[in-house]
Design brief:
This protein is of the alpha/beta class. Helix content is 39%, strand content 11%.
Length: 237
């Protein structure tokens, strides 16, 4: 029975990854698990590395994670290169260990790899949101496999005037393209408590008729309110 369940979980994860690789017919969208960032990726194998990161991130938490923290979209300093939302390359490469953020907390079963060019960012890209979110949850004593970080729009929308190393909010018309993958994501984590980070995420779950709690997104000087919101929702262990 356990073997069957493990197979079912792996099957759902592969279906989910397949959906994610199907980029929507939209402009100025980067798909970390399918696309190569010709300017900043170290080589053409980068998408497969990011896919493997996400696969193992899922395998370590599927059916286990109690808290699903869901933001807006992938950022260029985080999931664009790591393949994992709200998680930076710098965390995966061990350059945040002095802040208590160890690579094994994210990927306990494999050694992470970088995908960005070392000459562009020697220690890998670092995302402020990633540091705040991971630091807050671990600071509350939550086990790393007890929470999962995701976005309602799973890909990276960028500003064409600023280039691929920029972020922008996904539009309402764009968000609808992410509904199938978001529903599949929720199938992998039945019973997980959804915590929306920000208005875009909250509006998406409201449109889908999904129950959720909401806290302030930590970006744009929202870190203090974010921590207070998490403290209110999650009791320290």
């Amino acid at each position: 029975m356990r073997a069957i369940r493990r197979f079912e979980v792996k099957s759902k994860i592969e279906e989910f990854l397949f959906l994610l690789k199907q980029s929507p017919p939209l402009e100025n969208i980067f798909n970390p698990w399918r696309d190569v960032d010709e300017e900043n990726d170290r080589d053409s194998g980068a998408p497969e590395i990011r896919t493997n990161h996400l696969r193992h991130y899922l395998l370590a938490r599927a059916k286990k994670a109690r808290y699903l923290l869901v933001g807006e979209a992938i950022g260029y300093q985080g999931g664009h290169f790591s393949g994992i939302p709200m998680t930076s390359e710098r965390i995966l490469l061990g350059y945040k260990e002095d802040e208590g953020l160890f690579p094994r907390y994210v990927l306990p079963d494999i050694k992470p790899e970088r995908t960005s060019k070392p000459d562009i960012m020697p220690k890998g890209f670092s995302e402020p949101t990633a540091t705040i979110v991971w630091g807050t949850l671990l600071g509350f004593g939550i086990d790393p496999v007890d929470f999962f970080l995701w976005n309602v729009f799973p890909w990276h929308p960028f500003n064409p005037k600023k280039g691929i190393l920029s972020n922008r909010r996904p539009g309402m018309d764009e968000l609808k393209y992410a509904y199938p993958s978001l529903r599949k994501f929720l199938e992998i984590f039945p019973g997980g408590r959804i915590i929306s980070l920000g208005k875009i995420s909250a509006g998406t779950f409201r449109a889908l008729g999904v129950r959720f709690d909401e806290v302030r997104h930590p970006a744009n000087a929202g870190a203090r309110e974010f921590r207070a919101g998490i403290k209110r929702l999650i009791s320290p262990l």
